[in-house]
Write a sequence for this structure.
């Protein structure tokens, strides 16, 4: 009976040590999203779940914009305002 218990214990130990867990992967990668897309979606969900007056205050902060410009020969070119993620980097 002791031998059977030892064999079962060895089998269990062997099984747990030889099987490696799969490489961790984030949910946003599994969904085919970039991190920025994931964070934007999560923030939008949280803002829409809020109750008034916090909801209207959070919705005002939803938009974003930034300026982009080219530099040539040490001189800054014309600034262009970007307000859409789809236009970012173009």
């Amino acid at each position: 009976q002791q031998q059977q218990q030892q064999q079962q214990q060895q089998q269990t130990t062997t099984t747990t040590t030889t099987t490696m867990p799969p490489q961790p992967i984030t949910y946003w990668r599994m969904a085919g999203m970039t991190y920025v897309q994931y964070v934007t979606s999560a923030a939008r969900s949280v803002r829409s779940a809020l109750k008034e007056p916090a909801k209207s205050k959070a919705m005002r902060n939803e938009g974003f914009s930034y300026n982009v410009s080219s530099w040539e020969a040490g001189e800054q070119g014309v600034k262009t305002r970007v307000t859409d993620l789809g236009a970012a980097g173009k």
